[in-house]
Every structure is written in C-alpha cells, then in structure tokens.
Fold each of these.
Amino acid sequence: MSANEALLTLEGWFTYHDFRKINWEKWKQASSEERQAAIDELTSLMRVWNDAESETGGSTAVYSVLGHKADLCFIFLRPTMGELDELKTAINKTRFADYTETDYSYISVVELSNYVNNPGQDPKANPHVRERLYPILPKWDHFCFYPMNKKRGEKDNWYSMTMDERRELMQTHGLTGRKYAGKIKQIIGGSVGYDDWEWGVTLFAHDPIELKHIVYEMRFDEVSARYGEFGNFLVGNYVNEEALRKMFAL
Ligand code: VOV
C-alpha cells in the first residue's frame, strides 16, 4: 500500500443547509400586519431564489422539518461560498428572521468521489457528471439530511485501506443505491474542512418510506455496517409559497 492513497474528488456547487426553529411565542404575539409583512418578505425572497435557479446559477429548496430539531430548512446550492454567505445575511435581514433561531446548519460542497471514473476522460466534460455536480434540487415531497463519517478506528480504519479495497466496497454501495433509481435522489456534500462531519447526505423521496428503506438497506453494505458513523437525522416535507403561508397562518 502506498503511503497516501487519497482519491481524486470532483467538486461542484457549494451547499448550505440552513435549519431554523420558529419562535412561535413571538410569532403569535406579533400583529397580523407584522406577520403578513414578514411572510411577504420571505416569499418574495423565495421567488428570487426560484427565478435564479439555473445550470450556472445554483438551486434552492425549502422544506419544513418534523420533530423538535428544527421547523424549516433552506437548502442552497451555489457556485461560490460568497453567495452562500450573502444568502444567510439576506435571510437574517428579513423581518421573518426575527422570529427564527438558527440552531443548526451544514456547509459542504457537492462531491463525486472518483471510484468509478473513466480514465483519460475529462469528467467535467461529461453531461451526466455535470448534472450530478451542479444538480437542480428535485423538489420531491420529502427530504432527509444527516451528516456522516467513515470510521478511523484502530481496527477498522477506512483511510488506511487500499484504493482497491475501498473501490470494491463503494461499488457494492453504488449497486444498492441503483435499486432506488426514481425513488430516491441523493446529493452527497463533502464537508472535510468545512463542517463537523466528513459528508452531508441529503436524500429526496416521493414516498417517505423509501428514505427508511434505503438507509436501512445500506446499513447491511459493509461500507456502512463497518465504516459508517452517523450524526443526527432530520426529515421533512417540501414547502412551496402556498404551503409556507399556510404553515404560518394563525
Ligand atoms: C440513490 C441512491 C444512491 C446511489 C445510486 C449512490 C451511489 C454512489 C456512488 C456510485 C458513489 C461513488 C462515486 C460517487 O459518486 O461519489 C457514492 C459515494 C458516496 N455515497 Fe452514495 N449512493 C446513494 C445513496 C447514498 C446514501 C443513502 C448514502 C448514506 C450512506 C448510509 O449508509 O446511510 C450515501 C453515502 C455516500 C457517500 C458518503 C459517498 C462518498 C464516499 C467516499 O468515500 O468518497 N449514498 N454513492
């Protein structure tokens, strides 16, 4: 084994998952004019994000989040980190933000690991690869997000395995994933150097049961069973402007 078999990764858009909790007490105390103005401001921002969505400009999706961990998640994919910073600040400048708390967020960059490359070809010239590096978020009804690591234990250490060993395990992973074609869309963000875990996994589904099925089935693949370490899971439902207005109507 060579001393360092880091593989080449391909990077696409930078990603920012902005999870917000709503301060409902404060929201209920606000006047109806104030609430209306806050929602109007947020929805006009959402329209700007939708209109800007393109192959070169990035993509945005908004989800409501179940459970106590968050109420909303804004998912932003953009060409530069500067744009992500501007988006965060733009939200924070709205009246709506006065009713939110930002307990959690996640920064990564859309990543393809080159375990399955075609030697001699420029991967970024391949439209299929470009589609995965610069994906338009699918706006399917449900999403889940969780961060994960590959284990660096004394016995099981992903990073001290050879490239061939890792490639073989990733091929099995890819085969499991392919069974979910059309049911699950995954966006893998590499977050080494950016956030607390090594990857942020965002899954989209039409049927929330498929989120459970894929995560469960993958637990049996050696790469997850032996090397996967997982953070908190968050799950939610897609919200467009109408759904958002309904969510905040009192
Ligand atoms: C729709 C499902 C699906 C499919 C088709 C799929 C396929 C593939 C392929 C072909 C490849 C390798 C090349 C590349 O594209 O990077 C990957 C890579 C990766 N995956 Fe994946 N994955 C899926 C889905 C999928 C899920 C559900 C998870 C979470 C794992 C779990 O246990 O909860 C995951 C994780 C990852 C990660 C963290 C990486 C990077 C690993 C690294 O060490 O670099 N992934 N993945």
Amino acid sequence: MIYTVTLNPAIDYVMHPLTLDMGFTNRSSSEEIYCGGNGINVSTLLNELKVLNVAFGIAAGFTGEYLINTLQKSGISSNFVMLDHGFTRINVKLNGIVMTMVNGMGPKIPEKKVDELLERIDCIQPGDTLVLTGSIPKSLPENMYDIIMKRLAGRGIRFVVDAPGQLLMEALAAKPFLIKPNNHEVGRIFDARPETPEECIPFAEKLHERGAQNVIVSCGSHGALLYDNDCQVHTVPTAKIKLVNATGAGDSMVAGFVAKCQEGADYETALRFASACGTATAASRGIAKRATIDKVYARLNKIIEEQSN
Ligand SMILES: Nc1ncnc2c1ncn2[C@@H]1O[C@H](COP(=O)(O)OP(=O)(O)O)[C@@H](O)[C@H]1O
Ligand SMILES: O=P(O)(O)OC[C@H]1O[C@](O)(COP(=O)(O)O)[C@@H](O)[C@@H]1O
C-alpha cells in the first residue's frame, strides 16, 4: 500500500487574469479550484492510475471539510486529523503570461494533533511506501519528516521524500527509497545553476552518496534524470506540449515512478512513465487524467525510439 502525508494541504484557486497590474483591480477570465498540497497531488494521480493509496494529513475549517469531501467523492481514501480552529489554506495561482503563486501559511497545529497524526501513521506495514512531500507548516518542528521516519525506522518501510533544501538533506540519513528535487532545488543545495538532466548528474550522484537510494532530478521541459540504486544514470526527455499549468507536475512524476516500481517495472521504464505523468499534468488543468497520461506516454516512447535510431 502507498501512503502520502500532506501536513499543509491547500485548496488551489487558479485564476486566469487577462492582465496583471500590481496596485490595480485585475479581472480574471476564468477560475478553477483543485485539492492541492503535494501529498494530495500524488494521491490524486495514483488514484487516476487505480493504484490503492491513502492520503494522510491535517485539515481545518470549511476549506478542510471541502477538501476531505472532494477527495472522498473522487474515490481517494483519506485519513485526516481535523483541527478545532483555523482553516485549510487557499493557495492562489495567477496563470497569466507567467504563473504567479501566492501560497498561504495554513492553520496553527497544536502538538496534540500532531501526536494524533503520528499515531494514525503508525498503522503502516513492512513493504508499504510512505510519501513525505511538501513544505512543513511553521507551527511544526522543521524536522517533521525526520521525526516520522525515525519513528518508523527499522520496519521495512519505503520512504519517498520530496522536500525543499535543508529538509531534504536532513532526510538523507534515513536512506529514502526516492528523493525528487528539481534542478533549481539541486542548484540551491550545491550553489550551482544546472539546467539540463546531464548537468545535474554530479549533484544526483552526491545525493545518492549521502544516502538516497534513487535520486530523480526533474528539469521541467528539459526532462529528468535518475541516478539509481545501482549507480546507473538514466535520462529522459519530455514530449512537447502546450503548457497549461505545471502545478503538481513534480508530484505527478513521483506518483508515476512509485506506481511503476510497485508494479515491478525496471528503473528505465519507471522514469519514462514518471516523465509522461509529469508532462501530462503540465498539459492539463489540474492533475492529469489517465487518458492524457496514456497519450503522452505513447508519444514519449515514440520520441525515444526515434532518438535511438
Ligand atoms: N513545460 C513542460 N513540458 C513538458 N513536460 C514538463 C513541463 N514542465 C514539467 N514537465 C514534466 O514534469 C516533470 C516535473 O516538472 P518540474 O517542473 O521539473 O518539477 P516540479 O513541479 O517539482 O518543479 C518534468 O521532469 C517533466 O517530465
Ligand atoms: O506547501 P507549499 O510549498 O506551500 O506548496 C503547496 C503547493 O504545492 C502544490 O502541492 C504543488 O505545486 P508545485 O507543483 O508548484 O510545487 C500545490 O498543489 C500547492 O498549492
């Protein structure tokens, strides 16, 4: 079974402004709302692939209730601790000429609610996968992922960590099965500016040496690279698309990789499928649907076949 954890979920409110002038009233041409937060995005894509999973998390208020009800309606199993105060944040995504995001702070989480979540997460069994992804709310200890992994250590659980900077570096001690920074995050860690998968290879190798079993570095439209557990390097291009909204593309990639690995696929196949999932989401409104993933995967396989001839 795959479990995801979303400590600070969100309602993603996507607006399509015609123009964006700071200090003036701007009008949007259309709006959409999605259940967001990285773990929820991973769960949403896994659900689209019909891969059983449970979304753990913390929610609050009317937005939290909306989130939980919507997950339920979509057939996603969730196990959320509800807070007595505050509300799950609404993250505003202004999809203009460029994408501008304003992510909320989220509610204050009391210690006893964290303990309740940790007790619920204790049900995870050997062989299960736990995806820890996204930012940590300010009211929780910064090393929250470390706390969770230490609590579950030695139980044969596969950890997947997709977190920014220092949080990611601290997670390496737990020897996670997979980490997936993007090229910008890798650049910030190593004080460099890698753009392409090839340029990311030495940094992925370092992250592997420091503890991560598999390291995917995603590079947006440039594709991605995997430095695998056997020290093999795999790179994958992307299929060309009309970019709609790349929110959740990295989460979709994580979901695709984990789903394929659980199926027993080799790393090369898992990376290729993961890339298709990321691209399909970048070409979609919200997290990609199965039909789009299948179409993009077929196109990507064709591109790779043509490149090898
Ligand atoms: N503009 C794009 N065109 C095609 N594929 C994309 C695009 N943006 C993202 N992707 C796909 O999604 C993956 C993850 O995107 P990326 O932006 O690197 O991650 P993150 O969302 O974590 O920042 C990429 O490796 C690629 O497969
Ligand atoms: O926890 P953070 O860092 O504020 O990010 C939350 C946002 O990230 C997402 O989970 C994914 O967005 P990105 O693909 O831009 O990282 C959104 O659904 C959500 O609004």
